[in-house]
Specification:
By secondary structure, the protein is of the alpha/beta class. Helices cover 31% and strands 17% of the residues.
Length: 365
């Protein structure tokens, strides 16, 4: 008998599921809290639900977790999971512990279609979008491992979420949006929207929607200050160029000095790391409340680029800071296990569109 996986539901969908099974409306709230506040995977543990109802739920549904293929722990404490999905596709998920926070980096697609030339993930063909349940499942695996339930407890280990793993989140907007709303649910995982950051290479049609519907922090994968270079580094720029990207960012809802755009800028030796580049970056984002993350390039096998010298990175940062922009230099984390920015990749092979349609609903932006 086919069992419906409840982790694939939004709260409204869970309510409809309960209604269809002639269960009272409040049952959805109980199940939701058990799943997302307490991390419960077995109906037997839901002790405020009658035994008869639990047996019914067990017969018609399940609460799954993706399978862990491999886990690696870096010398700096960063943890990376290779996670196998129901179709045997794989994605990578990373937990980055810091003194003042614990950040989970989630993937939104198996592979990527953007082919950014400095990114290891970009060398893997897009296999498919992830479902909201597969995105949430990554987070729940991390919380399981860290014993971070119930979700609202004091001194929780997972405090921040970044949609910066494999894939372009805004090319899978519907499922990503659904997953983030579950993360923010007050009766569930309860991560504040101010602690969730979505990174995009610049899928213009969905940037404004992200601000209106989710209100999370926006990070732009920039890496170049002119169209000629950005076309080579970030090919989606040929469709959505810098002029349209900057305009879209200026109009991002609720933008303010306390709510800034984060610009991600990978420092590539002799490519984008000159003083002139820094000055042009300042001109490009003038008038936009901004923070600039300078990211030393993280090498991977077969990459064509080198990391900028520390002297050039420091000089670049000083020019930005002198102009009034916060410009921290990101410390590479998890390099020894290929868990750092731009290093994620799996060996999943592209599958037929007919197979994808059976797994993931297609939603056009």
């Amino acid at each position: 008998m086919f069992k419906q996986d409840l982790i694939d539901f939004s709260f409204a969908e869970l309510q409809n599921f309960c209604k269809d099974k002639n269960l009272p409306k409040f049952r959805a709230s109980q199940i939701w809290r058990w799943m997302y506040c307490f991390g419960i995977k077995s109906f037997d543990e839901m002790n405020n639900i009658s035994k008869l109802t639990r047996e019914l739920l067990h017969d018609i549904s399940l609460i799954s977790r993706p399978q862990i293929s491999e886990m690696q722990i870096s010398t700096d404490g960063t943890i990376k999971w290779l996670i196998k999905l129901k179709d045997n596709s794989e994605v990578e998920t990373v937990f980055i512990p810091q003194d003042d926070r614990g950040t989970v980096c989630l993937s939104s697609q198996v592979g990527c279609t953007l082919n950014c030339s400095f990114c290891h993930t970009g060398t893997q063909a897009l296999v498919r979008n992830l479902t909201s349940g597969e995105i949430i499942g990554q987070l729940m695996i991390v919380m399981d491992y860290l014993n971070d339930w119930p979700s609202g407890k004091n001194n929780r280990k997972v405090t921040n979420i970044v949609m910066m793993g494999m894939g372009e989140p805004l090319l899978n907007y519907y499922e990503v949006c659904k997953a983030i709303k579950i993360m923010m649910s007050d009766d569930g995982i309860a991560i504040s929207r101010r602690r969730i950051t979505l990174s995009t290479s610049g899928i213009i049609p969905n940037i404004e929607k992200t601000g209106i519907e989710l209100g999370v922090n926006l990070a732009i994968s920039l890496h170049a200050v002119n169209d000629e270079l950005r076309n080579k580094l970030v090919p989606i720029n040929k469709k959505y160029n810098l002029e349209t990207l900057i305009k879209s960012c200026k109009n991002y809802p609720k933008l303010s000095n306390s709510r800034r755009i984060t610009w991600e800028y990978v420092m590539l030796k002799d490519v984008n790391d000159t003083s002139e580049d820094a000055i042009n970056l300042i001109k490009l984002i003038k008038g936009i409340p901004s923070k600039i993350n300078l990211i030393p390039f993280n090498p991977w096998p077969g990459s064509l680029f080198e990391t900028s010298t520390q002297k050039n990175i420091d000089n670049f940062a000083k020019i930005l800071m002198d102009a009034g922009f916060a410009s921290p230099i990101r410390k590479p984390r998890g390099q020894d296990i290929y868990a750092a920015c731009g290093q994620l990749k799996s060996n999943s092979e592209k599958i037929r569109k007919s197979q994808i349609n059976k797994l993931v609903p297609i939603h056009n932006f």
